[in-house]
Description:
Blueprint: E1 3-7, H1 13-18, E2 25-28, E3 43-46, H2 47-52, E4 61-62, H3 64-72, E5 76-79
Parallel strand pairs: 1-2, 1-5, 2-3, 3-4
Amino acid sequence: MSTLHIVRTLDVRHCLEVLDPRGDAVLLVQDGVLHKNGFPCPVSASKDDVAARQVESPYPQLDYDGIRELMLAHERAVVW
C-alpha cells in the first residue's frame, strides 16, 4: 500500500522508521520544508511554505494542484 508521508516538523525519526522506498513519497509542509536530509523515496515540498519561510528547497516544489495530485496518487496519507 503506497503512503504519502506529510511531514510538517523537523522531527522525522518515526517517519523514517516506516518509510517504504517501494512506493511511498514524502511531502514537506509547514516547518518540514526546512528539512534538508535525504529520504529513501521521492520528496516534494509545498511551494507556498517554502516561500513563506523564505528558504530554498532542494526538492521539487508543488502548488495546491500538485499536492492534490500527489495525494490522489497514493492509497493513504499520514501526517507527521
